[in-house]
Design brief:
nucleotide-binding; binds zinc ion; 3-dehydroquinate synthase; two-stranded antiparallel ribbon; globular; metal-binding; 14 helices; binds nicotinamide-adenine-dinucleotide; Dehydroquinate synthase-like, alpha domain; Rossmann fold; zinc; alpha/beta; NAD
Length: about 350
Amino acid sequence: MNERISFDNSEIIVSQTAENELSNWINSMAYSKIFILVDENTHVHCLTKFLKNFPTELPIEVIEIPAGEENKTITTCVQVWESLADLKADRNSVLINLGGGVVTDLGGFIASTYRRGIDFFHFPTSLLAMVDAAIGGKNGVDLGSLKNQVGVIQFPTKVYVNTTYLNTLPPKEMKSGLAEMLKHGLIKGLAYWEKFEQMHQMNISALDELILESIQIKSSIVQKDPNENGLRKTLNFGHTLGHAIESHFLNHPQKYLLHGEAIAVGMILASFLSVQLNQFSENDLSRISALIGKYFTKIEFTSKDISQIIELTKFDKKNFGNQVNFVLLDQIGKCKIDCQVPESLINDAFNYYDSLKL
Ligand SMILES: NC(=O)c1ccc[n+]([C@@H]2O[C@H](COP(=O)([O-])OP(=O)(O)OC[C@H]3O[C@@H](n4cnc5c(N)ncnc54)[C@H](O)[C@@H]3O)[C@@H](O)[C@H]2O)c1
Ligand SMILES: [Zn+2]
């Protein structure tokens, strides 16, 4: 597979020789030094393979951060900014973010702000980063348990996707990325969604074409509405409650959930609300619950969890009073933004989720 998706000032290249193409590009430019940002896992699993296929005469420095969402903080940024300064990164240096969404979100923010901005490239290595985090120019860090509160919209010069890096990704992390792919089907394409219903096994060869399609769906939405004035909000389907669930369990390490695991629950809850408020069909709600249930284990919520999660949705600046703003479905593949949902219905949605035999 060798596909290119072009933006105004950016490009996504999906190729099994992506490293080589990136080195060709970088070698053709007047960069002074290459910095590669990894986390401890992508250092072990991805860096050797990457460097083997990345010929260059330019000096390379590797900067490692600890793995995990809890390190997507301004404190980690300060450490990386200091490393860049110590290693004499100048305005013509370039940063390659080799990792999952934590590395691409944080690395994009670091590069956008270091010396008021140096060029950067994303080389996503997790499924979630390939289909979502690395696409669309949003970069940033968390503030305490509140997700993505500090950041910028800045597109990388290019994004390079090589799906063979998924061979070392743990199965749980594969599922986390799958949640975002399912979301792309629910908001944009019935035919795309149905391919997942027909998929018997989740392996990389089955997913290869679907990954490309997911990238195309997200990038076409972002191209039409980069600043999230309207259409881009559809990508938040499942995220109003999903983010609140994720934030809530960040404070409860024993029940810690991956981003996609939280979004998977959020999508079932939003689909239930779509039936209540949007004439979405009960049958399609069952289809969604069944497919998500095939891949994701059920989460137990206590009534205290639920009330704290509802409180967290209120931190979202798009919500006011006792109404929470949602993206809801009209049909599979078609959705509506800015739907106001009364708080009491959210409780009903959790009751529905609780009643499911997943
Ligand atoms: N910017 C956006 O538009 C956007 C969109 C969606 C999600 N996000 C963000 O993305 C983050 C989640 O991304 P993620 O799920 O990739 O998390 P992550 O970066 O923590 O990666 C998941 C885990 O997989 C490991 N890993 C990554 N690639 C690997 C590989 N090839 N082999 C072995 N291990 C590997 C990582 O070290 C980590 O332990 C969240 O912070 C979320 O907010 C951002
Ligand atoms: Zn998401």
